[in-house]
Design brief:
The protein is built from 13 helices and 30 strands. It is an alpha+beta fold. It has a seven-stranded mixed sheet with strand order 7-6-10-3-2-14-17. The protein has a six-stranded mixed sheet with strand order 1-22-23-21-20-19. Strands 4, 5, 8, 9 and 13 form a five-stranded antiparallel sheet that branches. Helix 4 packs across helix 5, helix 6 packs across helix 8 and helix 8 runs antiparallel to helix 11. The longest helix has 22 residues. The radius of gyration is 24 Å and the shape is globular.
């Protein structure tokens, strides 16, 4: 399932290229050397005359970010030298944040001239028991490497911008190997802040790509997928240009990277002008499912809102949900029949979410600990935006829509003006009235149930359909790498089926797949003492209020164009 597609809203402002200032940016030369036989990606980074004082920070890297471990570089794995010789580095930890904690390497004396930092990045070892999560770690696959900078690249503490010269040294790679980065194929020169180096994607080795003659859209992969990658690339390529045009984006390429997972589940993570998704080959994912995932992440490139993540995730995720669906439909890659299926999938996910009644602030506290809590803003934002769009269309007699508001927010951002919640409310209030805009917004923020308006009438009608909340019955963190059952809920279906605290999980169905079907049982294989036990149960609560969409057979084909 499309899970943990969550991080562009948090990091988008960091990964955008910084405009050049009056002063010439300092040079930063990076050489990446893939060594597949040694299972390491060599890194050499030269900072031009950073002029650091004793105790100043040189580079930094998260030890763990939203549950994903980095390369860490414990001990003396990371070294540095300048014109005066080797630099002794002092390691420290920066103050923790809800997302994770960064390690910092500081110099013990003033630097002289250029500083060269070197280390070898080991790919993360993953197995069938690894917990699915954001695609930040560096992986080795099919003789190559692929991952986000934040998983392996210790970047300058100085924020920049830097005049970056990134070069791939492929001398240790087989013939035909090449490198690609969010910001270009092969060797790249560009002005960027330090954070953009972290929050961007890198891939090297026997890379395959689509199209043969890249334009603005690029798709890359290493291993052989069980689906037609060229066909997938063609579909997404057909969507990118109209999507970029809708959001009035006339420049810059967009790159999509894909990799294989040894564990069950599918998911993606979007960064600035790029996105990576992972899939489990034995699951034989369908192009239709992958298309929806990529469309969502690609839509993340444009609609953004200033503010804390917990206050604005409904906008970033809701807009990505709304426009990935609507623009796919308008581009002709999501016909009405599949649009109906997609709307009902999103309705089921929202109404069966066990956390649907939490306020935005309450949900934010669970965001980084429970993947199901991470989906709160997806459904909440999606249905709030459906209702807002319907209200604007009704108030204007069909002359105006949500399209006008999202474009106005985008223009404010591009122009360097504010684009926060208050700006959103002012724009919506000008369409439907300030009191109505505020009341609808407060209703959503408080976690009140959202009944979808007739935005898709007369083609699709809204009908009542009871929903049963997904209830795992024990702490979701039990499925993490330790995989030991804890916090079993007394009286839950899991407890009734025989699950016990302390059971070691040997095998479990893909949780996201089970969530899709309210009648599907969950199968667990646990180890208790020396014995293996297979336990099955229906992870659902009591029926409660929900809604769905149905096709009106009397509606014309023209009425089903949105």
């Amino acid at each position: 399932m499309m899970m943990r597609r969550l991080l562009l809203a948090l990091f988008a402002a960091l990964v955008l290229a910084a405009p050049a200032k009056a002063a010439e940016p300092a040079s930063l030369a990076i050489v990446l050397t893939p060594r597949a036989e040694q299972s390491q990606l060599g890194v050499s980074m030269t900072l031009a005359r950073p002029d650091l004082k004793a105790g100043d920070g040189l580079v930094r890297l998260p030890l763990m970010l939203v549950g994903i471990p980095s390369a860490r570089y414990d001990g003396d794995a990371l070294t540095a030298r300048d014109a005066a010789g080797p630099l002794a580095l002092v390691q420290s930890q920066e103050p923790p944040t809800p997302q994770g904690v960064y390690r910092r390497w500081s110099v013990d004396r003033p630097t002289q001239g250029d500083v060269v930092v070197r280390y070898a990045a080991p790919p993360r070892a993953v197995t069938a028991a690894t917990n699915n999560g954001p695609l930040f770690d560096l992986r080795q696959e099919a003789g190559g490497f692929i991952g986000a900078g934040v998983g392996f690249l210790a970047t300058p503490v100085k924020p920049g911008p830097w005049k970056v010269n990134l070069r791939w040294d492929l001398s240790a790679s087989p013939p035909g190997a090449r490198g690609a980065w969010t910001y270009g194929d092969g060797d790249v020169e560009i002005v960027l802040p330090s954070e953009a180096l972290s929050f961007s994607y890198y891939a090297a080795g026997p890379l395959k790509s689509h199209p043969a003659q890249p334009g603005r859209f690029h798709l890359y992969w290493l291993g052989e997928p069980p689906f037609d990658a060229e066909a997938l690339g063609s579909r997404i390529e057909a969507l990118f240009d109209p999507m970029a045009a809708f959001f009035e984006d006339a420049g810059g390429a967009y790159r999509v990277f894909m990799r294989q997972n040894p564990y069950k589940g599918m998911g993606g993570s979007a960064l600035g002008r790029s996105f990576m998704f992972g899939y489990h080959p034995p699951a034989n994912p369908k192009i239709d499912d992958l298309q929806g995932l990529i469309a969502h992440e690609m839509a993340h490139n444009w609609p953004r809102m200033q503010g804390e993540h917990g206050d604005t995730a409904w906008y970033s995720e809701g807009m990505a949900e709304f426009y990935s669906v609507l623009l796919s439909h308008r581009a002709g890659v999501l016909p009405a029949e599949r649009l109906l299926e997609t709307l009902n999938d999103k309705a089921d996910a929202y109404y069966s979410n066990p956390y649907r009644a939490l306020s935005n602030s309450e949900g934010a506290k669970l965001f980084w600990t429970d993947p199901i809590a991470q989906t709160i803003p997806y459904g909440r934002g999606f249905f709030y935006l459906i209702n807002t769009d319907a209200a604007i269309r009704q108030a204007s007699g069909g002359a105006r829509s949500l399209d006008d508001i999202v474009k106005a927010m985008r223009r404010r951002e591009v122009a360097g003006r504010s684009f926060g919640v208050s700006d959103w409310l002012n724009l919506v209030g000008a369409e439907i009235g300030a009191d109505r805009a505020r009341a609808d917004y407060d209703h959503m923020v408080a976690g009140q149930l959202l009944k979808p308006a007739d935005r898709f009438a007369p083609c699709f009608k809204v009908v009542e359909k009871q929903s049963r909340a997904f209830e795992l019955g024990f702490a979701r963190a039990s499925l993490n790498d330790a995989r030991v059952i804890r916090d079993l809920v007394p009286g839950s279906a899991a407890a009734a089926a025989g699950v016990q605290n302390g059971d070691v999980i040997v095998e479990v169905d893909a949780i996201d797949e089970v969530r899709k079907d309210q009648t599907r049982v969950l199968r667990l294989v646990v180890k208790r003492g020396d014995a293996l036990k297979t336990i099955t149960y229906l992870p659902r609560g009591a029926p409660r209020e929900g809604y769905a969409f149905v096709r009106d057979p009397a509606a014309s084909a023209a009425a089903c164009q949105f």
